[in-house]
Amino acid sequence: MDPVRRQLYQFVCSQSMPVSRDQAADAVGIPRHQAKFHLDRLTAEGLLDTEYARLTGRSGPGAGRTAKLYRRAGRDIALSLPQREYELAGRLMAAAIVLSATTGEPTVEVLNRIAHDYGQAMGAAATTRPPADPAEALELTLDVLRKYGYEPRRPAGPGDDEVELVNCPFHALAREQTELACNMNHALITGVADALAPHSPAVRLAPGPARCCVVLKRCSAHDPE
């Protein structure tokens, strides 16, 4: 989140009453028009709610115009930078535990299968037709992963065609339960790629420092899945 926008959000949340644009601008030390822009963006993103009221406290003719006021949104908002998906991991694990208890299959095997199926549904929802070529399949895969916070980073060198994922949405889980989290993550991303056949990008486990454990590579145009 933009630092100024974060300051405005924190100021609004710290107040017991809704605040005006002028109050917010003065508190953060920015021009009113800049405060308006950021406050309205926070509202559009669902982080703030708005209402209109006369700040004079009077009503009727001569009471003045109503002002737009901002307050913290009443709904639950989960905000994490960089993006994390612990709720998704929890849902996948809970489903795996329940199914494993019913079928007797090993929980880890069930988890990886469920993660793959979930990823496949994510990929299938990204397009209404099969990708035309490997480049489109890779780009669609990366678009899906961006929405889940993976932050794809394209190779810097002309001879390197592997795409790294800078952020791991399951970072804390992967640090404590590395094999479990990384295999689940690999299954999830493989599912996304598999949904974009026949030109699905290759997905492989390749743990590295300060990034996700998975890398992707555009499949060869002469070797579709």
Shape descriptor: elongated
The residue-averaged pLDDT reads: 88
Let me know the largest β-sheet.
4 strands, antiparallel
What is the C-alpha radius of gyration, as a whole number of Å?
Answer: 23 Å
Protein name: Transcriptional regulator
InterPro entries: WH-like_DNA-bd_sf, WH_DNA-bd_sf
Organism: Mycobacterium orygis 112400015
Please describe what this structure looks like.
This is Transcriptional regulator. The chain is of the alpha+beta class. The protein has two domains: about 5-70, Orthogonal Bundle (Arc Repressor Mutant, subunit A), CATH 1.10.10; about 85-215. About 45% of the residues lie in helices and about 10% in strands. The chain has helices at about 5-15, 20-30, 30-45, 85-105, 105-125, 135-145, 170-175, 180-195; strands spanning about 20, 50-55, 65-70, 150-155, 160-165, 200-205, 215. The strands form two sheets. A four-stranded antiparallel beta sheet has the order 4-5-7-6. It has a three-stranded antiparallel beta sheet with strand order 1-3-2. Strand 6 (about 200-205) and strand 7 form a beta hairpin. The chain is elongated, with a radius of gyration of 23 Å.
Short overview:
This is Transcriptional regulator. The chain has helices spanning 3-14, 21-28, 32-44, 86-103, 107-124, 134-147, 171-176, 178-194, and strands spanning 19-20, 48-53, 67-72, 152-153, 162-165, 202-205, 214-217. By secondary structure, the chain is α+β, with helices and mostly antiparallel strands.
